[in-house]
């Protein structure tokens, strides 16, 4: 499993006419690599693999003005002299770190599964619902992935596992035949935007009709986790984007239907904690938006920054709207839904 760490560094060229020296930091420590002046980005990747034990498959180099570069490089002949004087970020875990995270993830998954099993007496004549079990194994989240560079990724993994094992979520996914290859968490700081108009927070993202779903699990200060049922409702919202991208009437009808199905099938209490940790109990702020609609295209990079709900991979998937226009549209949708709800209540009270 490829994971990421985010550190900043710098690149510079030495005065030596025959060598170019690249300096970068990884895990908070500076590292220097010297290469012949005709060396390429591929040569630097080989040096990182041999010196820092970061496999090429895990390497991501964030170079200022050039963006994200990772093997296999689009231009493997890019000269190192071309990135002299540019800031560099090396993101990537060593082979040992990746193995440790995978092992911890497996253990957390097993513990969460054991905790979710109710205590029952053995019945000699109890029959198993094989069709239900087969459908639940098919219509589910194939991979759960926390952000390994944030504090306590095991807690985030347990949170994602709890969502996957939620009786209501399992029922809704089986009914609508939803299979999501990757369920992951988002980094709050990368999805919080502040300007003169205020601060907005994105709660969830859905790419390519369910290829990847990201959820805002943590508080802004990284000191806790948000309310479980609020995040579960966000997941219902993102699952509705598996069918409908824009926030039109069809989308909201499906979203509300999934929320009702999940709530009705929730035979567990829903709880307030992962392990013994308390959730953030605040309600949804006015400046929080579910998302900016389902989006497509681009290459998914775990933990990569996004603009307007789309990942910054060279193409903004905002259909030509500015961020202000997108937020305004989301606000209009919320006002419209509120008026519809109030109108329904007034109609009901008048007829009774």
From TrEMBL:
One of its GO terms (molecular function) is proteasome binding. Residues 312-321 have a biased composition (Polar residues). Signal peptide: none annotated. Residues 132-336 form the WLM domain. Pfam families: WLM. It comes from the Eukaryota. SUPFAM superfamilies: Ubiquitin-like. This is WLM-domain-containing protein.
């Amino acid at each position: 499993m490829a994971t990421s760490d985010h550190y900043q560094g710098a690149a510079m060229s030495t005065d030596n006419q025959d060598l170019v020296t690249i300096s970068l930091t990884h895990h908070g420590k500076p590292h220097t690599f010297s290469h012949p002046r005709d060396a390429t980005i591929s040569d630097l990747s080989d040096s990182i693999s041999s010196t820092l034990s970061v496999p090429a498959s895990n390497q991501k180099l964030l170079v200022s003005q050039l963006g994200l570069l990772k093997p296999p490089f689009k231009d493997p002949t890019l000269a190192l002299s071309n990135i002299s004087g540019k800031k560099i970020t090396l993101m990537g875990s060593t082979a040992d770190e990746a193995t440790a995270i995978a092992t911890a993830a497996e253990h957390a998954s097993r513990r969460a599964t054991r905790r979710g099993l109710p205590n029952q007496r053995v019945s000699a004549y109890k029959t198993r619902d094989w069709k239900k079990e087969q459908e639940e194994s098919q219509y589910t989240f194939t991979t759960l992935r926390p952000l390994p560079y944030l504090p306590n990724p095991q807690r985030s993994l347990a949170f994602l596992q709890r969502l996957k094992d939620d009786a209501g979520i399992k029922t809704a996914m089986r009914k609508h035949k939803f299979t999501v290859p990757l369920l992951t968490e988002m980094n709050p700081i990368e999805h919080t935007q502040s300007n003169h108009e205020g601060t907005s927070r994105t709660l969830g993202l859905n790419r390519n009709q369910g290829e990847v779903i990201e959820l805002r699990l943590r508080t802004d200060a990284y000191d806790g986790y948000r309310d479980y049922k609020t995040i579960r409702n966000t997941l219902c919202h993102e699952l509705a984007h598996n069918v409908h991208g824009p926030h039109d009437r069809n989308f909201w009808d499906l979203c509300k239907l999934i929320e009702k199905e999940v709530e009705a099938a929730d035979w567990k209490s829903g709880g307030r904690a992962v392990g013994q940790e308390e959730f953030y109990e605040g309600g949804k702020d006015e400046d929080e938006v579910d998302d900016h609609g389902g989006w497509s295209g681009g290459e998914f990079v775990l933990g990569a920054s996004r603009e307007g709900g789309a990942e910054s991979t060279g193409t903004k998937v905002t259909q030509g709207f500015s961020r202000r226009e997108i937020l305004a549209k989301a606000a209009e949708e919320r006002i419209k839904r509120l008026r519809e709800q109030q109108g329904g209540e007034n109609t009901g009270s008048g007829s009774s």
